[in-house]
Design goal:
Layout (H helix, E strand, L loop, with lengths): L2 H16 L3 H10 L32 H13 L4 H17 L3
Helix pairs in contact: 3-4
Length: about 100
C-alpha cells in the first residue's frame, strides 16, 4: 500500500512493537501465517441496517488496496463498509445538488 495510509499504519506498528517484550514478539511470529495469495478481510461487515428490504447488494469494482482502506476507515467510524460507501455517496450528492 502507498501514501498516508502506509505511513500511519507503519508508525502505529512500530510504536506497538517497541512496547512489546521479546517473548510477545516471538509469540506473534509463531502465530503468523504467510501467504502470497489475496487476503479476504472483513473488518466492516454489513449490519442488520444493511439488510433491510429496500437495500439491495450492488457490486462496486475497486482495487484490493482501496477495499482494505475502505474497510479500515469504515471500522474506524464504527460503520459497515456498505454504510460508509452510502454515506460518502449521500454527502457527495447533497454537495453537488445543494441549492438546485
Amino acid at each position: 500500500m502507498t501514501g498516508e495510509f502506509s505511513d500511519r499504519a507503519a508508525a502505529a506498528v512500530r510504536a506497538e512493537m517497541e512496547s512489546m517484550t521479546p517473548e510477545q514478539l516471538m509469540a506473534i511470529v509463531d502465530r503468523s501465517v504467510f501467504t502470497d495469495g489475496p487476503l479476504d478481510i472483513d473488518l466492516a461487515p454489513d449490519t442488520d441496517a444493511d439488510r433491510t428490504p429496500e437495500m439491495r447488494p450492488r457490486p462496486v469494482a475497486m482495487s484490493d488496496e482501496l477495499d482494505v482502506r475502505c474497510q479500515i476507515r469504515a471500522s474506524d467510524l464504527q460503520l459497515s463498509r456498505s454504510a460508509y460507501i452510502r454515506q460518502l455517496i449521500e454527502q457527495d450528492l447533497r454537495t453537488a445538488y445543494e441549492g438546485r
